[in-house]
Automatic annotation (TrEMBL):
PROSITE patterns: HTH_CROC1 (PS50943). GO terms for molecular function: DNA binding. SMART domains: HTH_XRE (SM00530). This is XRE family transcriptional regulator. InterPro entries: Cro/C1-type_HTH, Lambda_DNA-bd_dom_sf. Residues 498-542 form the HTH cro/C1-type domain. Pfam families: HTH_3.
Length: 559
Protein backbone atom coordinates (compact mmCIF):
# COMPACT_ATOMS: atom_id res chain seq x y z
CA UNK A 1 0.00 0.00 0.00
CA UNK A 2 2.84 2.36 0.83
CA UNK A 3 4.37 1.68 -2.60
CA UNK A 4 1.07 2.57 -4.25
CA UNK A 5 0.89 5.82 -2.29
CA UNK A 6 4.41 6.61 -3.40
CA UNK A 7 3.47 6.09 -7.04
CA UNK A 8 0.45 8.39 -6.59
CA UNK A 9 2.72 11.09 -5.19
CA UNK A 10 4.97 10.69 -8.22
CA UNK A 11 1.92 11.26 -10.44
CA UNK A 12 1.18 14.61 -8.75
CA UNK A 13 4.82 15.68 -8.82
CA UNK A 14 5.04 14.78 -12.49
CA UNK A 15 1.85 16.75 -13.28
CA UNK A 16 3.31 19.86 -11.65
CA UNK A 17 6.67 19.61 -13.42
CA UNK A 18 5.47 18.50 -16.85
CA UNK A 19 2.33 20.64 -17.24
CA UNK A 20 3.41 24.01 -15.77
CA UNK A 21 1.24 25.78 -18.38
CA UNK A 22 -1.86 24.23 -16.77
CA UNK A 23 -1.87 25.43 -13.15
CA UNK A 24 -4.27 23.55 -10.92
CA UNK A 25 -3.93 20.30 -12.83
CA UNK A 26 -1.93 18.63 -10.07
CA UNK A 27 -4.55 19.55 -7.44
CA UNK A 28 -7.37 18.26 -9.64
CA UNK A 29 -5.58 14.95 -10.21
CA UNK A 30 -4.83 14.66 -6.49
CA UNK A 31 -8.55 14.98 -5.70
CA UNK A 32 -9.42 12.35 -8.31
CA UNK A 33 -6.75 9.94 -7.09
CA UNK A 34 -8.03 10.33 -3.53
CA UNK A 35 -11.56 9.43 -4.65
CA UNK A 36 -10.27 6.46 -6.65
CA UNK A 37 -8.42 5.16 -3.60
CA UNK A 38 -11.67 5.36 -1.60
CA UNK A 39 -13.58 3.32 -4.21
CA UNK A 40 -14.31 -0.28 -3.39
CA UNK A 41 -15.95 -2.79 -5.69
CA UNK A 42 -18.72 -0.49 -7.05
CA UNK A 43 -16.41 1.35 -9.45
CA UNK A 44 -18.89 4.25 -9.76
CA UNK A 45 -16.46 7.18 -9.72
CA UNK A 46 -14.89 8.24 -13.00
CA UNK A 47 -11.76 10.46 -12.88
CA UNK A 48 -11.20 13.39 -15.23
CA UNK A 49 -10.50 12.73 -18.91
CA UNK A 50 -6.98 14.12 -18.56
CA UNK A 51 -6.10 11.78 -15.68
CA UNK A 52 -7.55 8.85 -17.63
CA UNK A 53 -5.39 9.83 -20.61
CA UNK A 54 -2.34 10.10 -18.36
CA UNK A 55 -2.88 6.60 -16.93
CA UNK A 56 -3.53 5.13 -20.39
CA UNK A 57 -0.32 6.52 -21.92
CA UNK A 58 1.77 5.41 -18.92
CA UNK A 59 0.32 1.93 -19.15
CA UNK A 60 1.01 1.84 -22.89
CA UNK A 61 4.64 2.97 -22.45
CA UNK A 62 5.35 0.56 -19.59
CA UNK A 63 3.96 -2.41 -21.57
CA UNK A 64 5.71 -1.55 -24.84
CA UNK A 65 9.05 -0.85 -23.18
CA UNK A 66 8.74 -3.52 -20.46
CA UNK A 67 9.19 -0.95 -17.68
CA UNK A 68 8.50 -1.41 -13.98
CA UNK A 69 5.97 0.84 -12.25
CA UNK A 70 8.01 0.86 -9.05
CA UNK A 71 10.84 2.53 -11.01
CA UNK A 72 8.58 5.10 -12.59
CA UNK A 73 10.68 8.05 -11.40
CA UNK A 74 13.68 6.69 -13.32
CA UNK A 75 11.98 6.55 -16.73
CA UNK A 76 8.87 8.78 -16.76
CA UNK A 77 10.72 12.01 -17.69
CA UNK A 78 12.35 10.29 -20.66
CA UNK A 79 8.92 10.15 -22.30
CA UNK A 80 7.88 13.69 -21.40
CA UNK A 81 7.11 14.89 -24.94
CA UNK A 82 5.17 11.77 -25.84
CA UNK A 83 3.09 12.02 -22.66
CA UNK A 84 2.39 15.75 -23.15
CA UNK A 85 1.31 15.24 -26.77
CA UNK A 86 -1.12 12.56 -25.69
CA UNK A 87 -2.60 14.23 -22.57
CA UNK A 88 -2.84 17.94 -23.49
CA UNK A 89 -5.78 17.55 -25.93
CA UNK A 90 -7.78 16.00 -23.08
CA UNK A 91 -6.84 18.84 -20.72
CA UNK A 92 -7.98 21.40 -23.28
CA UNK A 93 -11.17 19.47 -23.93
CA UNK A 94 -12.03 19.52 -20.20
CA UNK A 95 -11.45 23.24 -19.93
CA UNK A 96 -13.56 24.00 -22.96
CA UNK A 97 -16.33 21.73 -21.70
CA UNK A 98 -16.48 23.64 -18.42
CA UNK A 99 -17.31 26.94 -20.16
CA UNK A 100 -20.97 27.88 -20.69
CA UNK A 101 -22.23 28.13 -24.27
CA UNK A 102 -23.01 31.52 -25.82
CA UNK A 103 -26.63 32.52 -26.47
CA UNK A 104 -25.54 34.79 -29.35
CA UNK A 105 -24.09 32.26 -31.80
CA UNK A 106 -26.64 32.95 -34.54
CA UNK A 107 -26.37 36.74 -34.20
CA UNK A 108 -22.57 36.72 -34.16
CA UNK A 109 -22.46 34.43 -37.22
CA UNK A 110 -24.80 36.86 -39.01
CA UNK A 111 -22.54 39.82 -38.14
CA UNK A 112 -19.47 37.97 -39.38
CA UNK A 113 -21.05 37.85 -42.84
CA UNK A 114 -21.09 41.66 -43.00
CA UNK A 115 -18.24 44.01 -43.83
CA UNK A 116 -19.69 46.90 -41.82
CA UNK A 117 -21.87 46.72 -38.73
CA UNK A 118 -23.97 49.31 -36.90
CA UNK A 119 -22.14 50.79 -33.93
CA UNK A 120 -22.45 53.71 -31.54
CA UNK A 121 -21.30 56.98 -33.12
CA UNK A 122 -22.31 59.85 -30.84
CA UNK A 123 -19.65 62.39 -29.90
CA UNK A 124 -19.56 61.30 -26.24
CA UNK A 125 -19.49 57.63 -27.26
CA UNK A 126 -16.54 58.23 -29.59
CA UNK A 127 -14.62 60.32 -27.05
CA UNK A 128 -15.15 57.73 -24.31
CA UNK A 129 -13.91 54.99 -26.62
CA UNK A 130 -10.88 57.10 -27.53
CA UNK A 131 -10.18 57.77 -23.83
CA UNK A 132 -10.32 54.05 -23.09
CA UNK A 133 -8.12 53.04 -26.03
CA UNK A 134 -5.38 55.55 -25.12
CA UNK A 135 -5.86 55.14 -21.34
CA UNK A 136 -6.11 58.88 -20.80
CA UNK A 137 -7.10 58.46 -17.14
CA UNK A 138 -5.04 60.49 -14.66
CA UNK A 139 -4.22 58.33 -11.64
CA UNK A 140 -3.02 61.05 -9.23
CA UNK A 141 -6.52 61.37 -7.76
CA UNK A 142 -8.74 59.30 -5.48
CA UNK A 143 -10.28 57.78 -8.58
CA UNK A 144 -8.42 57.66 -11.91
CA UNK A 145 -10.10 60.43 -13.90
CA UNK A 146 -10.34 61.58 -17.52
CA UNK A 147 -11.83 64.86 -18.77
CA UNK A 148 -13.73 65.10 -22.04
CA UNK A 149 -13.78 68.72 -23.21
CA UNK A 150 -15.83 69.46 -26.34
CA UNK A 151 -17.97 72.38 -27.49
CA UNK A 152 -21.24 70.50 -27.12
CA UNK A 153 -20.46 68.40 -24.07
CA UNK A 154 -18.05 68.40 -21.15
CA UNK A 155 -17.84 65.19 -19.18
CA UNK A 156 -15.79 63.42 -16.54
CA UNK A 157 -15.08 59.69 -16.60
CA UNK A 158 -13.77 57.93 -13.49
CA UNK A 159 -12.58 54.41 -12.76
CA UNK A 160 -14.27 53.10 -9.62
CA UNK A 161 -14.25 49.51 -8.41
CA UNK A 162 -17.21 49.98 -6.04
CA UNK A 163 -20.95 50.04 -6.46
CA UNK A 164 -21.33 47.91 -9.61
CA UNK A 165 -20.82 44.37 -8.35
CA UNK A 166 -22.98 41.76 -10.09
CA UNK A 167 -25.23 39.36 -8.22
CA UNK A 168 -22.91 36.52 -7.23
CA UNK A 169 -23.48 33.27 -5.42
CA UNK A 170 -20.43 32.66 -3.26
CA UNK A 171 -17.38 34.27 -1.70
CA UNK A 172 -15.15 32.44 -4.21
CA UNK A 173 -17.05 34.01 -7.11
CA UNK A 174 -16.85 37.44 -5.49
CA UNK A 175 -13.10 37.01 -5.23
CA UNK A 176 -12.94 36.00 -8.93
CA UNK A 177 -14.69 39.25 -9.85
CA UNK A 178 -12.56 41.40 -7.53
CA UNK A 179 -9.43 39.94 -9.06
CA UNK A 180 -10.62 41.20 -12.44
CA UNK A 181 -11.75 44.69 -11.39
CA UNK A 182 -8.53 45.22 -9.42
CA UNK A 183 -6.73 45.33 -12.79
CA UNK A 184 -9.12 47.88 -14.31
CA UNK A 185 -6.83 50.88 -14.76
CA UNK A 186 -4.07 48.79 -16.36
CA UNK A 187 -6.63 47.15 -18.65
CA UNK A 188 -7.64 50.34 -20.46
CA UNK A 189 -6.35 49.77 -23.99
CA UNK A 190 -7.44 49.12 -27.56
CA UNK A 191 -8.76 45.66 -26.75
CA UNK A 192 -10.98 47.19 -24.05
CA UNK A 193 -12.21 49.71 -26.64
CA UNK A 194 -13.06 46.73 -28.88
CA UNK A 195 -15.12 45.14 -26.10
CA UNK A 196 -16.85 48.49 -25.57
CA UNK A 197 -17.86 48.42 -29.24
CA UNK A 198 -18.81 44.73 -29.27
CA UNK A 199 -21.11 44.90 -26.24
CA UNK A 200 -22.75 48.04 -27.62
CA UNK A 201 -23.22 46.40 -31.04
CA UNK A 202 -24.79 43.25 -29.58
CA UNK A 203 -27.05 45.28 -27.29
CA UNK A 204 -28.24 47.55 -30.12
CA UNK A 205 -29.11 44.45 -32.16
CA UNK A 206 -31.20 42.86 -29.40
CA UNK A 207 -32.61 45.56 -27.11
CA UNK A 208 -36.34 46.24 -27.31
CA UNK A 209 -36.18 48.84 -24.50
CA UNK A 210 -33.49 50.80 -22.67
CA UNK A 211 -33.42 48.59 -19.58
CA UNK A 212 -33.05 45.27 -21.38
CA UNK A 213 -30.25 42.98 -20.26
CA UNK A 214 -28.49 40.84 -22.85
CA UNK A 215 -26.23 37.81 -22.53
CA UNK A 216 -22.59 38.41 -23.37
CA UNK A 217 -20.10 35.56 -23.73
CA UNK A 218 -16.35 35.87 -24.13
CA UNK A 219 -16.59 33.68 -27.24
CA UNK A 220 -18.82 36.32 -28.89
CA UNK A 221 -15.95 38.81 -28.74
CA UNK A 222 -13.33 36.25 -29.79
CA UNK A 223 -15.44 35.29 -32.82
CA UNK A 224 -16.03 38.90 -33.90
CA UNK A 225 -12.32 39.55 -33.49
CA UNK A 226 -11.67 36.40 -35.57
CA UNK A 227 -9.36 34.80 -32.99
CA UNK A 228 -8.82 31.23 -34.10
CA UNK A 229 -10.74 28.56 -32.20
CA UNK A 230 -12.36 25.33 -33.28
CA UNK A 231 -14.99 26.00 -35.95
CA UNK A 232 -18.48 24.60 -35.43
CA UNK A 233 -20.81 23.63 -38.28
CA UNK A 234 -22.64 26.96 -37.93
CA UNK A 235 -19.40 28.90 -38.44
CA UNK A 236 -19.26 29.99 -34.78
CA UNK A 237 -15.95 29.03 -33.20
CA UNK A 238 -15.44 27.62 -29.70
CA UNK A 239 -12.70 25.83 -27.72
CA UNK A 240 -10.69 28.94 -26.99
CA UNK A 241 -7.83 28.92 -24.52
CA UNK A 242 -8.53 30.02 -20.96
CA UNK A 243 -6.11 32.94 -21.28
CA UNK A 244 -7.95 34.29 -24.34
CA UNK A 245 -11.27 34.17 -22.50
CA UNK A 246 -9.77 35.70 -19.36
CA UNK A 247 -8.34 38.59 -21.41
CA UNK A 248 -11.84 39.41 -22.70
CA UNK A 249 -13.53 39.22 -19.30
CA UNK A 250 -10.76 41.33 -17.73
CA UNK A 251 -11.60 44.07 -20.26
CA UNK A 252 -15.32 43.78 -19.62
CA UNK A 253 -14.67 44.06 -15.87
CA UNK A 254 -12.64 47.21 -16.56
CA UNK A 255 -15.58 48.73 -18.49
CA UNK A 256 -17.94 48.13 -15.56
CA UNK A 257 -15.68 50.25 -13.32
CA UNK A 258 -16.11 53.35 -15.53
CA UNK A 259 -18.57 56.00 -14.33
CA UNK A 260 -19.54 59.13 -16.29
CA UNK A 261 -20.77 62.56 -15.23
CA UNK A 262 -21.80 65.47 -17.42
CA UNK A 263 -20.22 68.68 -16.16
CA UNK A 264 -22.53 71.30 -17.63
CA UNK A 265 -25.86 72.23 -16.09
CA UNK A 266 -27.63 70.39 -18.86
CA UNK A 267 -26.64 67.47 -21.03
CA UNK A 268 -27.21 68.32 -24.67
CA UNK A 269 -27.92 65.66 -27.22
CA UNK A 270 -26.86 67.25 -30.50
CA UNK A 271 -28.28 65.83 -33.72
CA UNK A 272 -25.66 67.08 -36.22
CA UNK A 273 -27.65 65.95 -39.27
CA UNK A 274 -30.95 67.63 -38.31
CA UNK A 275 -29.45 70.59 -36.40
CA UNK A 276 -31.56 69.75 -33.36
CA UNK A 277 -30.60 70.03 -29.68
CA UNK A 278 -32.34 68.18 -26.87
CA UNK A 279 -31.45 68.92 -23.25
CA UNK A 280 -31.66 66.65 -20.22
CA UNK A 281 -31.32 67.62 -16.59
CA UNK A 282 -27.87 67.37 -15.05
CA UNK A 283 -26.95 63.83 -14.08
CA UNK A 284 -24.64 62.52 -11.37
CA UNK A 285 -22.03 59.86 -11.99
CA UNK A 286 -23.64 57.11 -14.01
CA UNK A 287 -22.13 53.65 -14.68
CA UNK A 288 -21.05 53.00 -18.26
CA UNK A 289 -22.40 49.46 -18.06
CA UNK A 290 -24.50 47.60 -15.49
CA UNK A 291 -24.11 43.91 -14.71
CA UNK A 292 -26.98 41.80 -13.44
CA UNK A 293 -25.23 38.46 -13.02
CA UNK A 294 -22.22 36.48 -14.12
CA UNK A 295 -21.76 32.82 -14.98
CA UNK A 296 -18.74 31.13 -13.45
CA UNK A 297 -17.16 28.06 -15.01
CA UNK A 298 -16.21 25.30 -12.58
CA UNK A 299 -13.91 22.32 -12.58
CA UNK A 300 -13.97 19.89 -9.67
CA UNK A 301 -16.10 22.32 -7.62
CA UNK A 302 -13.51 25.07 -8.06
CA UNK A 303 -14.25 28.28 -10.01
CA UNK A 304 -11.82 28.54 -12.93
CA UNK A 305 -13.10 31.56 -14.82
CA UNK A 306 -15.92 33.96 -15.64
CA UNK A 307 -17.00 33.55 -19.25
CA UNK A 308 -20.55 34.93 -19.48
CA UNK A 309 -22.68 37.66 -17.95
CA UNK A 310 -25.92 39.61 -18.28
CA UNK A 311 -25.20 43.24 -19.09
CA UNK A 312 -26.75 46.50 -20.32
CA UNK A 313 -25.50 50.05 -20.90
CA UNK A 314 -26.04 52.54 -18.10
CA UNK A 315 -28.82 55.12 -18.43
CA UNK A 316 -26.58 57.75 -19.98
CA UNK A 317 -24.99 55.48 -22.59
CA UNK A 318 -28.34 53.86 -23.42
CA UNK A 319 -29.67 57.26 -24.57
CA UNK A 320 -27.10 57.23 -27.38
CA UNK A 321 -27.74 53.62 -28.42
CA UNK A 322 -31.54 53.30 -28.35
CA UNK A 323 -34.67 55.28 -29.19
CA UNK A 324 -35.22 58.57 -30.97
CA UNK A 325 -31.86 60.02 -29.89
CA UNK A 326 -29.83 57.01 -30.98
CA UNK A 327 -26.71 58.04 -32.85
CA UNK A 328 -25.12 55.25 -34.82
CA UNK A 329 -22.79 54.76 -37.77
CA UNK A 330 -21.17 51.92 -39.64
CA UNK A 331 -17.98 50.43 -38.23
CA UNK A 332 -15.78 48.19 -40.39
CA UNK A 333 -15.75 44.69 -38.90
CA UNK A 334 -12.05 44.58 -39.74
CA UNK A 335 -11.53 47.26 -37.07
CA UNK A 336 -12.24 44.67 -34.37
CA UNK A 337 -9.93 42.15 -36.01
CA UNK A 338 -6.75 44.22 -36.16
CA UNK A 339 -4.20 43.23 -33.53
CA UNK A 340 -4.80 45.49 -30.49
CA UNK A 341 -1.05 45.91 -29.92
CA UNK A 342 0.71 45.70 -33.30
CA UNK A 343 -2.14 47.38 -35.21
CA UNK A 344 -3.61 49.71 -32.60
CA UNK A 345 -3.12 52.73 -34.90
CA UNK A 346 -5.16 50.99 -37.61
CA UNK A 347 -7.97 50.48 -35.09
CA UNK A 348 -7.95 54.08 -33.92
CA UNK A 349 -8.03 55.54 -37.42
CA UNK A 350 -10.80 53.17 -38.53
CA UNK A 351 -12.92 54.12 -35.49
CA UNK A 352 -12.32 57.82 -36.11
CA UNK A 353 -13.29 57.55 -39.78
CA UNK A 354 -16.47 55.67 -38.86
CA UNK A 355 -17.44 58.55 -36.58
CA UNK A 356 -16.47 61.19 -39.17
CA UNK A 357 -18.42 59.51 -41.96
CA UNK A 358 -21.54 59.51 -39.81
CA UNK A 359 -21.13 63.27 -39.29
CA UNK A 360 -20.48 63.91 -42.98
CA UNK A 361 -23.36 61.73 -44.15
CA UNK A 362 -26.02 64.47 -44.33
CA UNK A 363 -24.23 66.56 -46.95
CA UNK A 364 -22.33 63.65 -48.50
CA UNK A 365 -19.28 65.69 -47.57
CA UNK A 366 -16.96 62.71 -47.79
CA UNK A 367 -14.25 64.38 -49.87
CA UNK A 368 -13.47 67.10 -47.33
CA UNK A 369 -9.77 66.55 -46.54
CA UNK A 370 -8.23 65.59 -43.20
CA UNK A 371 -5.23 67.35 -41.66
CA UNK A 372 -2.14 65.21 -41.06
CA UNK A 373 -0.52 67.12 -38.19
CA UNK A 374 -1.78 69.31 -35.38
CA UNK A 375 -4.21 68.76 -32.50
CA UNK A 376 -7.01 67.75 -34.88
CA UNK A 377 -4.77 65.86 -37.31
CA UNK A 378 -4.79 62.15 -38.05
CA UNK A 379 -1.44 61.54 -36.34
CA UNK A 380 -2.88 62.81 -33.07
CA UNK A 381 -6.04 60.77 -33.61
CA UNK A 382 -3.92 57.63 -33.80
CA UNK A 383 -1.53 58.65 -31.05
CA UNK A 384 1.55 58.78 -33.31
CA UNK A 385 4.16 61.25 -32.16
CA UNK A 386 5.17 64.04 -34.57
CA UNK A 387 8.87 63.25 -34.17
CA UNK A 388 10.88 65.57 -36.43
CA UNK A 389 14.01 63.40 -36.01
CA UNK A 390 12.30 60.49 -37.72
CA UNK A 391 10.14 62.28 -40.28
CA UNK A 392 10.56 59.67 -43.01
CA UNK A 393 9.73 56.86 -40.62
CA UNK A 394 6.56 58.63 -39.43
CA UNK A 395 5.49 59.33 -42.99
CA UNK A 396 6.08 55.70 -44.05
CA UNK A 397 4.12 54.46 -41.06
CA UNK A 398 1.26 56.84 -41.85
CA UNK A 399 1.10 55.77 -45.50
CA UNK A 400 1.38 52.05 -44.65
CA UNK A 401 -1.58 52.33 -42.28
CA UNK A 402 -3.72 53.99 -44.95
CA UNK A 403 -2.59 51.44 -47.55
CA UNK A 404 -3.60 48.59 -45.21
CA UNK A 405 -7.02 50.13 -44.58
CA UNK A 406 -7.48 50.42 -48.34
CA UNK A 407 -6.41 46.82 -48.99
CA UNK A 408 -8.80 45.61 -46.28
CA UNK A 409 -11.76 47.57 -47.65
CA UNK A 410 -12.04 49.87 -44.64
CA UNK A 411 -11.53 52.82 -47.02
CA UNK A 412 -11.85 52.87 -50.80
CA UNK A 413 -8.97 55.17 -51.62
CA UNK A 414 -6.74 57.89 -50.22
CA UNK A 415 -4.50 60.57 -51.72
CA UNK A 416 -2.45 63.62 -50.76
CA UNK A 417 -3.68 67.07 -51.69
CA UNK A 418 -0.80 68.98 -53.25
CA UNK A 419 2.13 67.22 -51.57
CA UNK A 420 5.11 67.16 -53.96
CA UNK A 421 7.68 64.51 -53.04
CA UNK A 422 10.43 66.50 -54.71
CA UNK A 423 10.25 68.93 -51.78
CA UNK A 424 12.01 66.32 -49.62
CA UNK A 425 15.23 66.88 -51.56
CA UNK A 426 14.83 70.68 -51.63
CA UNK A 427 13.87 71.37 -48.02
CA UNK A 428 15.57 69.67 -45.07
CA UNK A 429 12.65 70.77 -42.88
CA UNK A 430 10.09 69.25 -45.24
CA UNK A 431 8.52 67.17 -42.45
CA UNK A 432 7.46 70.00 -40.14
CA UNK A 433 7.16 72.81 -42.72
CA UNK A 434 5.36 70.94 -45.49
CA UNK A 435 4.22 67.38 -44.76
CA UNK A 436 2.66 67.93 -41.33
CA UNK A 437 0.75 70.91 -42.74
CA UNK A 438 -0.57 68.88 -45.66
CA UNK A 439 -3.94 67.18 -45.95
CA UNK A 440 -5.23 63.89 -47.32
CA UNK A 441 -8.48 62.90 -48.92
CA UNK A 442 -9.90 59.59 -47.66
CA UNK A 443 -12.73 58.21 -49.73
CA UNK A 444 -15.14 55.85 -47.92
CA UNK A 445 -16.11 52.47 -49.38
CA UNK A 446 -19.38 51.87 -51.17
CA UNK A 447 -20.97 50.38 -48.02
CA UNK A 448 -20.79 53.82 -46.41
CA UNK A 449 -21.89 55.95 -49.36
CA UNK A 450 -24.67 53.56 -50.40
CA UNK A 451 -26.01 53.53 -46.85
CA UNK A 452 -26.03 57.33 -46.82
CA UNK A 453 -27.88 57.42 -50.15
CA UNK A 454 -30.45 54.91 -48.90
CA UNK A 455 -31.05 56.94 -45.73
CA UNK A 456 -31.43 60.12 -47.78
CA UNK A 457 -33.92 58.42 -50.10
CA UNK A 458 -36.02 57.33 -47.13
CA UNK A 459 -36.05 60.90 -45.79
CA UNK A 460 -37.03 62.30 -49.18
CA UNK A 461 -39.83 59.76 -49.60
CA UNK A 462 -41.16 60.56 -46.13
CA UNK A 463 -41.05 64.33 -46.75
CA UNK A 464 -43.02 64.30 -50.03
CA UNK A 465 -46.72 63.66 -50.70
CA UNK A 466 -46.07 60.93 -53.23
CA UNK A 467 -49.48 59.37 -52.73
CA UNK A 468 -51.06 62.35 -54.50
CA UNK A 469 -48.70 62.45 -57.49
CA UNK A 470 -49.46 61.47 -61.06
CA UNK A 471 -46.69 58.92 -61.72
CA UNK A 472 -47.44 58.69 -65.46
CA UNK A 473 -46.78 62.42 -65.86
CA UNK A 474 -43.75 62.18 -63.59
CA UNK A 475 -42.24 59.40 -65.71
CA UNK A 476 -42.83 61.38 -68.93
CA UNK A 477 -41.15 64.49 -67.50
CA UNK A 478 -38.20 62.47 -66.27
CA UNK A 479 -37.71 60.90 -69.70
CA UNK A 480 -37.82 64.25 -71.49
CA UNK A 481 -35.36 65.76 -68.99
CA UNK A 482 -32.95 62.85 -69.45
CA UNK A 483 -32.95 63.27 -73.25
CA UNK A 484 -32.32 66.99 -72.91
CA UNK A 485 -29.50 66.60 -70.40
CA UNK A 486 -27.60 63.98 -72.40
CA UNK A 487 -27.71 66.11 -75.53
CA UNK A 488 -26.54 69.34 -73.87
CA UNK A 489 -23.99 68.51 -71.12
CA UNK A 490 -20.30 68.75 -72.01
CA UNK A 491 -17.67 68.50 -69.26
CA UNK A 492 -14.46 70.48 -69.40
CA UNK A 493 -11.22 68.74 -68.47
CA UNK A 494 -9.98 69.98 -65.09
CA UNK A 495 -8.27 68.09 -62.25
CA UNK A 496 -11.33 68.61 -60.03
CA UNK A 497 -13.81 67.43 -62.68
CA UNK A 498 -11.89 64.32 -63.65
CA UNK A 499 -11.49 63.28 -60.01
CA UNK A 500 -15.20 63.76 -59.33
CA UNK A 501 -16.21 61.77 -62.41
CA UNK A 502 -13.81 58.97 -61.48
CA UNK A 503 -15.18 58.80 -57.94
CA UNK A 504 -18.78 58.91 -59.18
CA UNK A 505 -18.04 55.83 -61.33
CA UNK A 506 -16.48 54.01 -58.35
CA UNK A 507 -13.14 53.66 -60.11
CA UNK A 508 -9.69 53.61 -58.57
CA UNK A 509 -6.85 55.48 -60.25
CA UNK A 510 -5.42 52.44 -62.01
CA UNK A 511 -8.80 51.35 -63.40
CA UNK A 512 -9.70 54.84 -64.62
CA UNK A 513 -6.30 55.36 -66.23
CA UNK A 514 -6.65 52.06 -68.06
CA UNK A 515 -10.04 53.11 -69.47
CA UNK A 516 -8.68 56.52 -70.50
CA UNK A 517 -5.56 55.05 -72.09
CA UNK A 518 -2.92 56.86 -70.03
CA UNK A 519 -0.53 55.85 -67.25
CA UNK A 520 -2.04 55.80 -63.76
CA UNK A 521 0.87 57.94 -62.51
CA UNK A 522 0.00 60.55 -65.13
CA UNK A 523 -3.62 60.58 -63.97
CA UNK A 524 -2.61 60.79 -60.32
CA UNK A 525 -0.23 63.68 -60.93
CA UNK A 526 -2.83 65.52 -63.03
CA UNK A 527 -5.53 65.17 -60.35
CA UNK A 528 -3.12 66.45 -57.71
CA UNK A 529 -2.13 69.50 -59.77
CA UNK A 530 1.41 68.33 -60.49
CA UNK A 531 0.85 68.39 -64.28
CA UNK A 532 -0.27 71.89 -65.27
CA UNK A 533 -0.05 71.49 -69.06
CA UNK A 534 -0.95 67.96 -70.18
CA UNK A 535 -0.35 66.98 -73.78
CA UNK A 536 -3.15 67.61 -76.25
CA UNK A 537 -3.41 63.87 -76.88
CA UNK A 538 -3.97 63.17 -73.17
CA UNK A 539 -6.46 66.06 -72.91
CA UNK A 540 -8.48 64.60 -75.78
CA UNK A 541 -8.46 61.13 -74.17
CA UNK A 542 -9.63 62.50 -70.82
CA UNK A 543 -12.35 64.65 -72.40
CA UNK A 544 -13.65 61.75 -74.45
CA UNK A 545 -13.68 59.46 -71.39
CA UNK A 546 -15.42 62.03 -69.17
CA UNK A 547 -18.20 62.61 -71.71
CA UNK A 548 -18.98 59.02 -72.61
CA UNK A 549 -22.71 58.52 -73.19
CA UNK A 550 -24.73 56.64 -70.57
CA UNK A 551 -22.06 57.22 -67.91
CA UNK A 552 -22.71 59.08 -64.62
CA UNK A 553 -21.11 62.51 -64.18
CA UNK A 554 -22.80 63.74 -60.98
CA UNK A 555 -21.18 67.20 -61.01
CA UNK A 556 -22.54 70.60 -61.90
CA UNK A 557 -21.49 71.74 -65.37
CA UNK A 558 -22.16 74.43 -67.90
CA UNK A 559 -23.46 73.71 -71.40
Amino acid sequence: MSELNEIHKKFQEYATNTFPDYPGLSAAWKADIKKLKQEKSENTFQPSQSLKAFLVILDKISNEQNLNWQDIDSWIYSYKNEIRDFVIPYIQFERNQSAPISHNQELVTELLNQSFIESGSALLYHKLRETISKNDFVVQTEYPTAKIQEKTVQATAQVRDDGNTPHLLSSEEIQQWKNLTAQAITSMDDLTADIFDIISILWMKQASHKDQMINFHTDDALNLRQVQGRKELSGYQTSYRKKERDDIMKRLAALTTIWIRIERDNLKFVDVENNEIDELEQVQFNPLFILDSITVAYRDSKPVGIYECKIKPGELLANFLYGSKKSSGLLALKTLQYNPVKQKFHKRLARYLSWQWRIRQKGADYLRPYSIGGDKGLLNVMGIEENTRYGSRVRDQFENILDTLQQDGVIREWLYLGFDESIIEKNKRWFEEVWLLNKVQIIPPDDITESARENQLVLEMESQQYDEMNFAALLKNMTESEVASTSETILEVTPENIRKVRVSRNLKLAAAAKEIGIAHTTLSRYENGKILNPTQANLNKMKSWMNQPNQPKRIKTTS
